[in-house]
Design goal:
- By secondary structure, the chain is an alpha+beta fold.
- It folds into 2 domains: 25 residues; 141 residues, Glutaredoxin (3-Layer(aba) Sandwich), CATH 3.40.30.10.
- The chain contains 5 helices and 9 strands; from the N terminus they run H-E-E-E-E-E-H-E-H-E-H-E-E-H.
- A 7-stranded mixed sheet has the order 1-2-9-8-5-6-7. Strands 3-4 form a two-stranded antiparallel ribbon.
- The protein starts with a helix and ends with a helix.
- The N terminus is likely disordered.
């Protein structure tokens, strides 16, 4: 049984490496850990007015993307830190992307929560799950850090501390 498991893990590793090496220059690649490396995949989400906004709209700027939902306790715990960092780093784009599935998470729930807490960062709604799919999001919260060249510098799964948030922002603003 252990031998079969080992063979499966090796095969998965080799297939992942082959898939990554077949992608073209400048294309995002999926690392063995399941995180993107290289150029940040583009996506479209909706802003508070229902207007489509693409990641590429912020080209040339450092970007922090946080995938969250109101049903996620850890998301709620880290949000005050993101709001504080948003105010402290006006040259960094913060995309707080709500996992709006229309059932468990709705725009109304997200808006009410953000308003109740008094957060000032912009909230975007991933109603089609395109952004989540682009980054293969399976854990909430997940935060992606993109430098001004459009390269994914770091991706943190799960709740992060304020110190880690600042360290990662430093990586994308150097």
């Amino acid at each position: 049984m252990k031998r079969i498991r080992l063979i499966c893990l090796v095969l998965l590793f080799v297939l992942t490496l082959c898939a990554c090496s077949q992608q073209g220059e400048g294309q995002p690649q999926l690392s063995v850990s399941g995180e993107w490396t290289g150029s940040a995949p583009n996506f479209a989400v909706l802003d508070k007015d229902g207007k489509a906004v693409q990641l590429s709209d912020f080209a040339g700027k450092p970007i922090v993307i946080n995938f969250w939902a109101t049903w996620c306790g850890y998301c709620k715990q880290e949000m005050p830190d993101f709001d504080k960092a948003y105010k402290e780093y006006p040259d960094v784009v913060f995309m707080m992307i709500d996992a709006t599935d229309g059932v468990y998470e709705t725009r109304e729930k997200a808006d009410a929560y953000v308003r109740q807490e008094g957060f000032s960062f912009p909230v975007y709604y991933d109603v089609s799950s395109l952004a989540q799919s682009a980054y293969r999001i399976s854990v909430y919260p997940t935060t992606v850090f993109i430098d001004s060249h459009g390269e994914v510098v770091a991706q943190k799964k799960g709740m992060i501390s304020y110190e880690t948030l600042l360290q990662c922002i430093a990586l994308i603003t150097e």
